[in-house]
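Interim report, section 4.2 (structural modelling).
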Amino acid sequence: MSDLDLRQEFLAGTAPGEDIAVQLSGDGQFRTADMSLSIGPAHPATHGVFRIVLDLDGERGREARPVIGYMHRGFEKLAEHRDFRQIFALVNRHDWLSGFSNELGTALAVEKLMEFEVPDRAQWIRMLLAEWNRVLNHLMFIGSYALELGAITPMFYAFREREDIQHLLESATGGRLHFTYNQVGGLKIDLPKGFLAESTQVSSLVRSRLPDYFDLVLGNEIFHGRTKGVGPLPMEVALSLGVSGPTLQAPGLPEDPRVTEPYLKYGEIDVEVPVGENGDAFDRFYCLLHRIRVSLDIIDQIHDHIPPGPVNSKLPKMVKAPEGATYVRIENPLGQLGYWLESDGGRTPWRLKMRTPSFSNVQAIPYLMRGQLIPDAGSILGSVFFVVGDIDR
Amino acid sequence: MMLLVTSGVAPYLAQAESILDVGDTFIVPLLLKLAFVLGIFFVGPLVAGYLEHKAMGRMQHRRGPVEAGPFGTLQLVADGIKFIQKEDLIPSAADKWVFAMAPGVALVPAMLALLVIPFGPGVFALDLELGLFYVLAASSVSVLGVLMGGWSSANKFSLFGGLRAGGQLIAYELPLILAAIAVAVQAGTLSLVGIVEAQAEFMLFGTGINLWYVIPQLLGFGIFFVAALAELSRPPFDMPIGDSELVFGYMTEYSGIKYAMYMLTEYAGMVTMSALMVVLYLGGWQLLPGVPLPGCEAAGGLFDCGVTGTLLGVGVMLGKILLLVFVMVWLRVAYPRLREDQLQRIAWLVMVPLALLNLALVTIAKVVY
Amino acid sequence: MTGHDLVFVAVGLLTAGGAVFTVTSKNLMHAALFFAVTLGGIAGVFLTLAADFLALVQIVVYVGAVAVLFMFGLMLTRAPIGREALDGQNRGLAMAVAGGLFVVLSTLVIGAFGDLPTAEVTGPRIDDLGIAIFADWVLPFEVLSMLLLAALIGAIVLARRESGESGEELTVTRIEMAQDRDPEALEREQAALTSGSGGTGEEHA
Amino acid sequence: MAPSAPPGIGLLKGLGVTIKHLFQRPSTLMYPHERDVLAPRTRGVIALMDENCTVCMLCSRECPDWCIYIESHKETVPPAKEGGRARTRNVLDRFAIDFSLCMYCGICVEVCPFDALWWSPEFEYSEYEMGSLLHEMDKLREWADTVPPPPPLDEGAVLPAEVSDALAKVEKERELAAAKELEAKQAAEAPAETAGDAPKKGKAAEPEIHVKAGEIDQEAFDRLIAEGKSERMARSKAKAAYVKKEKARLLAEAEAAGGDAEAESPAPKAAEVKVDAGEIDQETFDRLIAEGKPERMARAKAKAAYVKKEKARLRAEAESDTGEGTGADEPAEVPSELGASPEAARQALDADGAATDDDAAPEVAAEAATTEAPAARKLGDIHVEGAGEIDQEVFDQLVAEGKSERIARAKAKAAWVKKQKQAKLDEEGGA
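Predicted structure of the assembly:
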């Protein structure tokens, strides 16, 4: 795939203007002048303040260097100065598309450290809302990825579905993006009356509209042309870079903490893990789209399982985690989210290290983008699925 | 334009059958024709733009413009006023003259192309003997404006946009012309009015069934349509603009009225190309193949139609144009963007050979029958 | 002088002006644009001589394709954007050639047609043109097309060969490229080369 | 992977999907012309009920971005009795929330121990200047008029302790009332001797009397001002005086009406006092607009006024046709006013929570009624011990159907629990 590469041997003895021998490599295509193109920090393809510097030869990029940090807000440090109630309002903001899952990870970490037993009902409801959050997030990426490839319509359809789901979640949590519904020991308040009925209804509605995405995007030949074979990520590279989520499932590894290390009540229900074959952009999108379907399946299962009972337990006036450290990993919509929580017994975390999926996924970009065309760069950039806030924290 | 009218084209004015030739003075029909062409030029894109807004909105499960004017019909007028008010930015590193002239260079040929297109029985400014060739020539000059804009903006994204536009236009000019030539061969004339007449008279071989050229030249129509999309940089061939890759391609640095001129060029191009396709393949202003318009039964069913027939003819023509514009919008809604190299591959490996094949088939058929 | 003559003179001046600016312009891109103006002017000249078809061909082929190709090429290479001095340092020679050509051509034209009376211009019809090309002049036409085809293929072959085959050794003049590369990367590249790991193609695949 | 279709089919399908939508109704909400009904829990704006605030500063301290400003001073309250000790109490001077800093986490609302802070779904308070987003006490108080009652909880939910306590109390009183009614009936069978009835009735009526707390007793207010008290002080006292007076008046009325034992319920069944919250009281609205209030505020107030009026009307209707025996079954208060005590508001959680939820009004109303009735127990209320067991039958069947073992076990477990519950319920029903 690479260009003809003219490599010069820089011998100490030669000066500019002197004749030297060079070796040619590559496939013998035309050679044009180099150019360094800075995509971002404010560019439509980067959805967020993310910058990528491409060294170009014609329209072909020779090397890509992601530049991150334009959105660093110091969440990890901030969390050290907020108590265990307040950090929930922080963590649901680093990946603003997966607020509930982030809260869930934090809650699980604190509860694990405190050895707290969470009521069953709370666990099931957490699962339900986490899956809804996953659907929300994936719908967003379906729309934005299609937009990156120039298809404007899926975005509008995705937002229509998102609106329904956000309405549903708002009725329970009061929030549309930043739910702040979890708390240590359970949930803030129980679901409102009629939530489950509405949830069933929305689930069947979204399910009935899924074929539109399959027909409009996944089955489209132009889409195939733009994504198949573009930016393939071999399994071993994927594993060594630490990518996760759809990006890791695309090469064919059914890795998903919901199945491999079930937390909450995921062990009691059926979770399917969609996998791809080649690990290219098409497979990543394929996995993403099918994860919506799987999430809807999970939601339907959860509806039959939610037991009656309390959703939170009595907490001390000041929540203090005992001295120690713990690590919790869960499957966030974009991949594995890990929280390393260390406490010195005080009312705030001593250290909250976030292992965010977006940060790890972005590591694959220089590898994937080497030798790609500019349009493919967009295709790849969109297909590794990241949220800039989740990279920079 | 002055050039054309005052010099070599003047002789054709006398023989033209346009109803715009009122009186025997020279200046009145000239002004009338200018007004007609300018009217089409400014109103056509507005209608096309409104259709795009609305159709796109409804296909995306939303409403499109609703506030400006009844049903949002004045949205584009409001946009135009906004563009005029906006600051006209010129980047400091830009080549100012080229930068300023580029939208005009793109705009004028698009306007000139409308001169020869017949919009109804006798409703045209000029019936050039070389009408078809003239439209293609005029539309091919537009790309100069795009290249100038892309280069002079001193912006890498603009440069890429210009480059892509240039490559795309060169690649698709060939299939476009080859497909059009096949029509000219079948009709035996390059005059657009003549082609419409030829379609009215074309019978399926050996039978008495009148057909438009879209049936015998379905392949050519497909090639022409795709090539026209590419030439206009309409999705799925909008790589020169490619907003998710190149910000806005060659238009990135443009703002205000100059940007509006580029947009006007695009929509005028849509109208022109659709009109050309209607004339070449879809029987012009005829309602149905073999059925003359009411009022036009006399005089071969194409001219001397009286007021009703003429208006009806214009309506049919505009309806067909809007239908084609709608299809362009539809494609924009439904499809993602292709990649530049894929587009070139399609152009050189699929479109050009197919267009040549089409031309060969048509020529053989023409010679045989 | 008729109006027709006036138009002819105006178009001629436009063409000549475009040509002058093409050679005197300090900016490569401007030169290309003036060249396009010149070509368009020539189309205008054809038009005033009632050779519509030729004029349109001139526009399609030269303005729409050749000039665009020129600019396309300039953009692909490092054509400087903005003011940058451009000097081929061949002015004397170029002027001599151009001047000589002008003198020879004008002498020839005036000598051959100078004494003809001015007549109403009536260009040929396209039918006549078609018949002329495909009946009387079909052989030269075919020979020309073969020539053009050969040139086309030749250009492709040349362009391909110039960049060489993979693994080939070429002798080129070293140019300073180090300012935008850090020395470590160079060392790494050199190490990769000397270790014989081949081109970048394998890494990317 | 997706089965490979013949080329071109994907393109046609894309066209089909888009053209299908062309003929559907757009899903757009024409925002300024139409408004969405937001969920009652929506975190739109924070409302303050300043009469509940005790200046404990919890909200201010817990706020992660410190956007709540509270100022107060201490006042000495003279001893209640002669020779008692004078006490000090905090008086709120300023309570402001800077919504340009607020991140809408809701911690302040959550931590407030006296229910002074509430979430309101109103969201249209954007401003041209950042400084105008600082809402002072009066503005925050105005938002309080827009706070909807909290929605009822899901069937399976365990009610919060204070709510379930209150419900238990209600149930107890209900039993007591039933017993008394029985007694009264027995007494009525005996030769008439009604002298003992009046005090009983009065006592029963006491918790039902509910007064709108927002008003003040003008007379008392003027008097206090004349005595040189601060205005705030005077207002709060006047308020208290008003409440006392009103209660006394209502009590007297109730007693006056007290010949008929069954007319003893000024508060009709909660479900009946259900008003469509979407409407506004045009009169109030016009008046407020004329007073120069912003439209939004006027609308919110007019809405509240409408709800108030409607409730009053419905209640009056209910009172007028108390021929039927609704007498003893609903002693629950109807917290129609937002200035009501927190207990009342909490009870509203279950009692008439859906009152303003016009979407689900009919069925929710019915359900609210059933929640109230102690006899109608549902599966959700029953607790079953030993959830670890499974329904072997279901399990075998599912395994036979080819389900994975894990799924089968989970489903069988659920089936077992459901069965047990049904059995218990039947048992209770039989007993």
